[in-house]
Design brief:
It is a single chain. With about 200 residues, the chain is of the alpha/beta class. It is built from seven helices and seven strands. Helices cover about 40% and strands about 20% of the residues. Helix 1 crosses helix 2. The longest helix has 18 residues, at about 15-30.
């Protein structure tokens, strides 16, 4: 899991980039059909599936002018056992206020010190993307306009995740994957998503 911006780079023959572009085009079509100036998009999927790349591409190609807010749950999860709690923080402190037209405030979790860090505001008048494992639940779906589930083969996901985070993540892969599987069993995000994206 990355607590820093993605370091992946596209190449002309990058199949992940091509799949992301196809997915972004699908999401943009859905966005254009909404009657909302400040829609909320949730992007869920297991570690290494390509959520971060997809979210960044969507921000760049958002169909209307103005700022789009992007919140990555990697910045919120309170440690390696915090998937479920991180999602609840996002629901309570970001999605609920946004839906009510109120300013939301969330605190970044500092993975190095394992403690809360600086606070960030979320403007309810602006579009919002929340990206991270676990974010599609029955509770968050009611607070969103589009929910995207990103899936990819486990071998490819693990390779990408460990290439990105290396020895920092390696000891925790199984621990985190177990929480993701629990989320999939309990919440069935692929079945409830507006769009399902297959990444290589």
């Amino acid at each position: 899991m990355s607590s820093a911006p993605s370091r992946s780079r596209s190449t002309p023959d990058d199949p992940l980039a091509a799949a992301s572009q196809t997915a972004v085009a699908r999401i943009v079509r859905e966005l254009r059909g909404l009657d909302a100036l400040n829609p909320v998009v949730l992007i869920d999927g297991q570690s290494g599936a390509g959520k971060t790349r997809l979210a960044a591409a969507l921000v760049r190609q958002w169909p209307s002018s103005g700022r789009v807010q992007l919140v990555a749950l990697d910045s919120i999860y309170p440690g390696w056992d915090g998937l479920e709690y991180g999602v609840e923080i996002a629901r309570q402190d970001i999605l609920v206020p946004h839906a009510r037209g109120l300013m939301g405030v969330w605190r970044r979790h500092d993975w190095e010190t394992d403690a809360p860090a600086e606070a960030h505001a979320v403007d309810p008048s602006l579009p919002l993307i929340v990206e991270g494992s676990g974010i599609i639940t029955a509770q968050t779906l009611r607070l969103s306009d589009i929910a995207v589930w990103v899936e990819a083969p486990e071998e490819a996901r693990k390779r990408r995740a460990l290439l990105r985070d290396g020895d920092t993540y390696r000891p925790h892969w199984d621990r985190w994957a177990a929480q993701e599987r629990g989320h999939i069993r309990a919440d069935e995000p692929a079945q409830h998503a507006t769009i399902v994206v297959a990444m290589p």
